[in-house]
Amino acid sequence: MCPGCGWPAAKCQCSSRRTGQAPVPDRPIAKLRLEKAGRGGKAVTVVYDLPHNAVFLKDLCADLKRTCGTGGTVSENTVELQGDLRERVRPHLQKKGFTVKG
Predict the structure, then answer these.
(1) Percent helix, strand, coil in the chain (nearest 5)?
(2) Residue % of the chain over a pLDDT of 70
(3) Domain coverage including residue 73
(4) For labeling, which of 25, 30, 50, 72 is most exposed (least CB within 10 Å)?
C-alpha cells in the first residue's frame, strides 16, 4: 500500500497529482525532431526532453510561438510548434542558454 494515497503500490495515484514543479537546470538540454506521422501529413516541430516544470514549459512555448510566428502547444514535457521550424528554434534556444541536440 502507498503511504501517500492508500492505493496498492502498483496502482499508486500520487504521481497523477503532481504539479510538475521539477527544478530547471542552469543549462537545460532540449532535443528537436520533426514529426509528420498521425498528423494528416502536416509537419510539427517537437522540442522534447525538457524539465517537468509546468510554468517553465508554458513560458517557453509562448516565447517560441512569438519568435516563430506560429501556433503551438505544451504536451507532457514537450513543446509542439506547427510547421518545420527547426532552423529558427535551434539558434533561439542556444541564445537562451540551452544545449540543443537533434
Answers:
(1) 30, 25, 40
(2) 88
(3) 20-101
(4) 25
